[in-house]
Write a structure and sequence with these properties.
- The structure is a single chain.
- The chain is of the alpha/beta class.
- It folds into two domains: 4-118 and 245-337, FAD/NAD(P)-binding domain, CATH 3.50.50; 124-241, FAD/NAD(P)-binding domain.
- The protein has helices at 16-26, 61-74, 124-127, 158-168, 189-197, 310-337; strands at residues 4-12, 31-34, 78-80, 85-90, 95-99, 104-112, 116-118, 134-136, 150-154, 173-177, 201-204, 207-213, 220-225, 231-235, 238-241, 245-247, 296-298.
- Strands 1, 2, 3, 4, 5, 6 and 17 form a seven-stranded mixed sheet that branches. It has a five-stranded parallel sheet with strand order 8-15-9-10-11. A three-stranded antiparallel sheet has the order 12-13-14.
- The longest helix is centred in the last third of the chain and has 28 residues, at 310-337.
- The radius of gyration is 22 Å and the shape is elongated.
- Bound molecules: flavin-adenine dinucleotide (FAD).
């Protein structure tokens, strides 16, 4: 795919949010979807979603996104996979996204659904067991499912501290592995005290996970004390890596409002100090999932304040298109009314 191509809607990112947006848009709007890799995004890491409407016995993230991908194709959306978006610009009528191979895609509406990337430990044996006992997360979805187990958390922030407290209500023991000499200074004092007071939480400072082991599933970890150099093995079937995540928005830097961590700011969150962004060029206010650039929407994990779940990402992808249709109508009316 090279050259210059024109669409009504371009969706950047083919995870659950982007695929759902594509299905919604492809009915009536010329739609394309771009992804840096393949379709599905992070969804295959979800073994089962119990509350997705229409699936009595639950459905895996992989199966759900496979079906949505096929549906989007059947409805006429085109796909440009293994071709990351690397640049963005906007003109009077359309937005342009440049892909790594040099293709320029122009579209009236963009849906940015590029998700986020969890920071890994950089330990291959741990990463290999992702989804099989190793979970990259910023909250523990179902702590009760770990009742009676030995659980490990890597991380030193308030997120890790809160997760330790949530898990300690169910697990037999929770070990928090902290690389530095103490928990992060940003952990609120009350939270830190509660962790200290909780009998079955142990915080191991100056410590790193250097290996994960198990036959196709996590069975234990090896820990290294950074001061003494001692290595010890510990048995566990649940390791949560909570070392943070970064939204995939570097390519949008300077183009639209991002928060301090790089997440895209949308809707009413754009209202700051009693005003909308100074360069907001249209009279209406930004719509719910609209970014600081009119007709550019953000959906799923890439959006500031998103609920980081497959179902929520799908909902946001679909909602973005409902809002986009509204914005397109308004844009067309303005174009008709504009002086020639
Ligand atoms: C290990 C793990 C376990 C999880 N477990 C659960 C669970 O049990 N239940 C649950 O509901 N949720 C779970 N989640 C969260 C869930 O997967 C996400 O909330 C959901 O996938 C977000 O969807 P998304 O479409 O916003 O982003 P993603 O699924 O991350 O998709 C983003 C897509 O954008 C693409 N992309 C990134 N940058 C670019 C670029 N520059 N150009 C083009 N494409 C780009 C990526 O390749 C990716 O395909 C888990 C996530 C992880 C990582």
């Amino acid at each position: 795919m090279t050259g210059s191509l024109s669409y009504d809607v371009a969706v950047i990112g083919a995870g659950p949010a982007g695929l759902a947006a594509a299905v919604s848009a492809a009915v009536g709007l010329k739609t394309t979807v771009v992804d840096a890799y393949g379709a599905g995004g992070s969804a295959p890491a979800t073994p089962v979603i119990h509350n997705y409407p229409g699936f009595l016995d639950g459905v895996s993230g992989a199966e759900l996104t496979r079906r949505i991908y096929e549906q989007a194709q059947r409805l006429g959306a085109s796909f440009a996979l293994t071709n990351p978006a690397v640049g963005f610009s906007t003109g009077r009528g359309a937005h342009t996204v440049t892909l790594a191979d040099g293709t320029a895609i122009s579209a009236q509406v963009l849906v940015i659904a590029t998700g986020m990337a969890y920071r890994t430990l950089g330990v291959a044996s741990v990463d290999k067991l992702t989804g099989s006992g190793v979970t990259y997360a910023d909250a523990v979805a179902e702590p009760a499912s770990l009742a009676g187990q030995e659980v490990f958390i890597v991380g030193s922030t308030a997120t890790a501290a809160q997760a330790a407290l949530d898990l300690a209500k169910h697990a037999s023991n929770v070990t928090v592995v902290v690389r530095a000499g103490s928990m992060d200074a940003s952990v609120p004092a009350e939270l830190a005290k509660e962790v200290d007071r909780t009998r079955n939480i142990r915080v191991r400072v100056n410590t790193q996970v250097v290996e994960g082991f198990g036959e196709g599933r996590l069975e234990g970890v090896r820990l290294r004390h950074r001061v003494s150099g001692t290595i010890e093995a510990a048995r566990t079937r649940a390791l949560f890596v909570m070392t943070g995540a970064d939204p995939n928005t570097e390519w949008l830097k300077g183009s639209m409002q991002r928060d301090d961590e790089g997440y895209l700011v949308t809707g009413t969150e754009l209202w700051r100090n009693g005003q909308w962004p100074q360069d907001w060029p249209v009279e209406r206010v930004p719509l719910l999932l609209e970014t600081s650039v009119p007709r550019v929407f953000a959906a799923g994990d890439v959006r500031r304040g998103a609920v980081r779940r497959v179902t929520s990402a799908i909902l946001e992808g679909m909602l973005a298109i409902t809002l986009a249709r509204h914005a397109l109508r308004e844009h067309a009316q303005r174009a008709v009314g504009a002086p020639s």
